[in-house]
Amino acid sequence: MSDPENNVPGRWNRNKRDWGVSIWVAFLAACVGTFILFALIDPESLGSSWVAGWETSVRLTYGLGFGFIFLVALFATRLTSFMIRTGPRRGHARGKGKRRPPEVHDPADNNPDLRDEDWI
Amino acid sequence: MSAEAGAPAGESLYRKEPKVYPRDVHGRYARLRRIAVLVLLGMYYILPWINWGGHQSVLFDLPGRKFYIFGLTFWPQDFIYLALLLIAAGLTLFFFTALAGRLWCGYACPQTVWTEVFLWMEKWVEGDRNKRMKLDKAPWTANKIWRKSLKQFLWVSFALWTGFTFVGFFTPIREFGQNILAASIGPWETFWWIFYSFATYGNAGFLREQVCKYMCPYARFQSAMFDRDTLIISYDLERGEPRGGRRKTADKAELGLGDCIDCTLCVQVCPTGIDIRDGLQTECIACAACVDVCDQVMDKMGYERGLVRYTTENALEHKASRVLRPRVVIYGVLLAAILGSTLWSMTHRTPLRADLLRDRNQLYRELPDGRIENVYTLKLVNMTDAAQRYVISIPGHENLTWTVSPEPTLEAEQVGRYSFTIQAPRDFAAGSVEIDVRFEAESNPGIAVDHKTRMLMPINGGGR
């Protein structure tokens, strides 16, 4: 991490900030998701209808529901964070990859032996 | 946007990303891709219409909670197979990526495959690359309106057929087709049909390379799977530079040039619009169009093929390349182990499922004759394609009796719930005893499962 903006004493670096935001957003999503899910589905009715034949208490069902939604949401937020932080940056004036779109021209320019219709 | 410090005055460092008009290409890799498109899309569009073992060959019957795949029926209890197959699919991707780079992107990814078909239609209606570019720049004449409308008509029709087929994997496709003709499809079928059609149209017609460049996570992860012996498409910098135009008869050594004649055809055929001569880039989907066209140019110029080719970083540096590396071996062994165990497990699975759930309201009850009774709910799943009657026994405990109601007889692929009780003499045991209950198909003793459960008795041998 040689980026000076990323290493300000006393300030979280980018990685920590990304994790913090991801976890917090996933937590909020899981709260809302759990609230809506169990407003629509009675957790007691799930107790004995698991595919694997488990019998779970209502509290455990709430816990499993929240945990599951949290993990799915965390996966989504981490992936989003990763996708935004990486990837091509061509076309932008700033950033590491300030490459420009490649130049193209008629193949026959300076190559008289290549007539364009040969390549259609 | 204003120019940054250091840039020549008046020059903006921002430049609009130009629209990519991929030039048509011929060659061995283009042929391979065409074959991949025809095989994969052929499977996609034809499979739902073929019946296998009395069912549609591939049908994910979500309301019925059953998946039919090539004559096999998968139940919710077979979720483990789905998980294993997903893991195997992931490992397959790792394995082939480590070995041969982005084969998936170049030949098999739905984004590549459908974009290719949409490009065929575009080319058929609007012409080759130059004609398409001219048409886009031209004013709206009758000819332009006609061509654009025809292209949209073909795209929309193909997208609707794709969406229809997609829904046909989840609902019997013949029934679905008849319902469409009778204008009596349900709201969910309509939604998914339109949604998937729209996704196909948008992704393959408009988003195209943007999906690969900005939306697909695989391109970002690929570097974790690559090493210096992974097959990549690469420009031979050493051989190609310095690049420059020339006549075929010119002596390149005299001109001080390499083999690259800077025709930019490798850029023009690239579906993501990159220049492979800039080195390995995340945008490269390894379709090998640049390899094909460069080989054509080399042939035309009388130079050796392979200026742009499949190679490895080590080979480019004149070092030996190895096919068998630790990561390839590890991915391969894991893949073989998972596929082997899944196959073994699937071919040896018992087509009967039995679940015994204890009545939670009471531990046990005492019968008038003094015996102790435990009450259960029994769930039987007949996973065969024939009706079955089941025989129940409790091996090793001849003094136990049981009742089941109603009769445990199930039609093909049916689920039944029963009231099941076990009675034991008071002196059978004290406290909790583990017992095995055996369920067996009357017509085929090979179809049998043992279910462990606990028989609860009074702790002191007395009443409750």
If helices are DSSP runs of H or I spanning 4 or more residues, what is the number of helices of chain B?
16
Low confidence ranges of chain A = 91-96
The quaternary organization reads as heterodimer
CATH homologous group name of the domain at 352-456 in chain B: Immunoglobulins
Cα-atom radius of gyration of chain B: 32 Å
Mean pLDDT of chain B: 89
Proportion of strand residues of chain B: 15-25%
What is the helical fraction of chain B, as a range of percent?
40-55%
Indicate the low-confidence ranges of chain B by residue numbers: 1-7
The mean pLDDT of chain A is: 79
Structural class call of chain B reads alpha+beta
CA-CA gap between termini of chain A: 48 Å
Strand content of chain A is: under 5%
Biggest sheet character of chain B: 5 strands, antiparallel
* Structural shape of chain B: elongated
Query: How many angstroms does the end-to-end distance of chain B come to?
Result: 86 Å
What does this entry look like structurally?
The complex is a heterodimer of chains A (120) and B (464). Chain A is 49% helix and 0% strand. With 120 residues, chain A is mostly helical. The two termini of chain A are 48 Å apart. Chain B is an alpha+beta fold. In chain B, 43% of the residues lie in helices and 18% in strands. Chain B has 16 helices and 16 strands. Chain B has a domain at 352-456: Immunoglobulins (Immunoglobulin-like), CATH 2.60.40.10.
